[in-house]
């Protein structure tokens, strides 16, 4: 990433928009490799210090009451949600591009792990010892059902809205290929003014979700809440709405 684009506005005006990382870099077309840069700068404020409230609230919608499901967590970072899901008895498989995110997850939970190079693609498998958690450290667009298998559940908190908007359909197709016939997919998204705020996250309406998944899945809006806080206020926006969708194969 260049440093010249990270200068602050002069005299209150700037052609570039502030992004969530606190600079003016254009992040609308971030590559997977760019997340390594953000992790190296410890710019991971998007991580919640608690299990996601939407996941807790709608866990039964996700698992349908099953006590052991295979759960996929795309673009997982070091999310606490993975440990919580494993503690509920589920088998958890995450995907993350940055090695630092994988290492921090296991080290912060004091979980021993092994690493093994992936076969056929560039990446590493981080596998917990004694806990049913694995993280595939690779580009999400390299994932296949041959590599990961099929899933009963997908919990997607922020992945869909973190990627460049032009990649949404491609990302949806990858995740759709990993869904078992009765899979439940909870997709957490946001409504935010990207005319003011550079992202990520990038604005995502119900129409956007349907455009990505609607051709092969049923999409149902489950929940929404006002998620505006001090961090979002610092972006210059006046509103920030969180929405949750349930996606099922059809």
Description:
The protein contains ten helices and nine strands. It has a single domain, classed as 3-Layer(aba) Sandwich (Rossmann fold), CATH 3.40.50. The chain is of the alpha/beta class and 250 residues long.
Helix content: 25-40%
Based on Cα principal axes, name the global outline.
Answer: globular
CATH domain fold name: Rossmann fold
Instruction: Give me the secondary-structure category.
Output: alpha/beta
> What would you say the CATH architecture is?
3-Layer(aba) Sandwich
**Strands, total number:** 9
Compute the number of structural domains: 1
Rg measurement, Å:
18 Å
Would you identify the regions where 5 or more consecutive residues have pLDDT less than 50? 1-14
Q: Which terms would index this structure?
A:
26% strand, Rossmann fold, 250 residues, alpha/beta, 9-stranded mixed beta sheet, single chain, 9 strands, 10 helices, disordered N terminus
Please give the structural blueprint.
Elements: H1 32-40, H2 53-57, H3 59-63, E1 70-73, H4 80-87, E2 91-96, H5 99-108, E3 113-117, E4 124-128, E5 133-137, H6 145-148, E6 151-157, H7 159-162, H8 168-177, E7 179-191, H9 206-213, E8 217-226, H10 230-234, E9 241-249
